[in-house]
Automatic annotation (TrEMBL):
Name the record gives this protein: Transcriptional regulator, IclR family
Domain of life from the UniProt record: Bacteria
PROSITE patterns on file: HTH_ICLR (PS51077), ICLR_ED (PS51078)
Organism: Actinomadura mexicana
GO molecular function: DNA binding; DNA-binding transcription factor activity
InterPro entries named among the record's database cross-references: GAF-like_dom_sf, HTH_MetabolicPath_Reg, Tscrpt_reg_IclR_C, Tscrpt_reg_IclR_N, WH-like_DNA-bd_sf, WH_DNA-bd_sf
Keywords linked to the UniProt accession: DNA-binding, Transcription, Transcription regulation
Length: 258
């Protein structure tokens, strides 16, 4: 979680500071299910009084709820309702049967993700049937340059990453320069799918393809993920074919829903 500093050299635009801080408070619950205002303040670099004021306002709207026994806050019913509505209106929940079919057909973990700035936010995740597997629950965020879903989104999106070079390195295989990333994305556009070859986590590989909406715009990516021992070169073509076929069916389904 990026800290929100109250003092700094770069001042926020007028009228945005309260919104930015409120969003930061809500996002702080991605890493901690229940928190006190003081804990939120320390996590985000806010004053305790500022954190209390924002938490009270969010609690009044139902965005946060409070456990009276511990006085800790957690995400409230309004947040849950808005999240569920967002998923439904993006068509994500209606796409789940196709994701289930992809998981059952390959035995591997399946994720659906969307771009969130220079990260990929996981909307849906279905775990692998194997004991040795890679899991990332909905709500997880991955650096966009390190994951297969991120590269599938970048390859077919005209909006480049805003990160400064060198990009954060997570493993020896991470692409850390714009030139390296662009070369990889050219290959993604030629193949139609992307590959994460242990670029975020050693021992984990993935293959992903873009999903388009009714207007032809890439709005999400679908990925198969798992341990490198099951994602070797002999099996990768079949996994790529499966994820491409699933992405096509998801695109067709979303086109009919739009």
């Amino acid at each position: 979680m990026t800290e929100y500093r109250e003092e700094g050299t770069q001042q926020p635009k007028p009228g945005t500071q309260t919104v930015d801080r409120s969003v930061a408070v809500l996002r702080s619950f991605e890493g901690a299910a229940r928190q006190t205002p003081t804990q939120i303040a320390h996590r985000l670099g806010l004053s305790v009084s500022t954190a209390h004021r924002i938490v009270r306002a969010l609690h009044a709207t139902g965005m946060l709820a409070q456990d009276p026994a511990t006085e800790r806050y957690f995400l409230g019913p309004t947040t849950a309702i808005l999240g569920r509505l967002a998923l439904e209106r993006m068509g994500a929940t209606l796409l789940q049967p196709e994701l289930t079919a992809l998981r059952d057909g390959t035995g591997e973990a399946v994720s659906l993700g969307v771009r969130a700035g220079d990260e990929v936010a996981v909307l849906l995740h279905l775990p692998s049937v194997h004991p040795l597997r890679y899991d990332q629950p909905p709500g997880d965020r991955n650096p966009i340059h390190t994951c297969a879903m991120g590269k599938a989104l970048l390859a077919f999106d005209g909006d480049p990453v805003a990160m400064e070079e060198p990009y954060a390195r997570h493993t020896p295989a991470t692409l850390t320069t714009r030139a390296e990333l662009e070369a990889d994305l050219r290959g993604v556009r030629e193949r139609g799918y992307s590959v994460n070859d242990e670029e975020r986590l050693a021992g984990v590989r993935a293959v992903a393809a873009p999903v388009r909406d009714g207007g032809g715009r890439v709005f999400a990516a679908v990925a198969l993920q798992g341990p490198s021992v099951r994602f070797g070169g002999d099996r990768m073509p079949a996994l790529a074919e499966a994820v491409l076929a699933a992405a096509g069916r998801l695109t067709d389904l979303h086109r009919h829903l739009s």
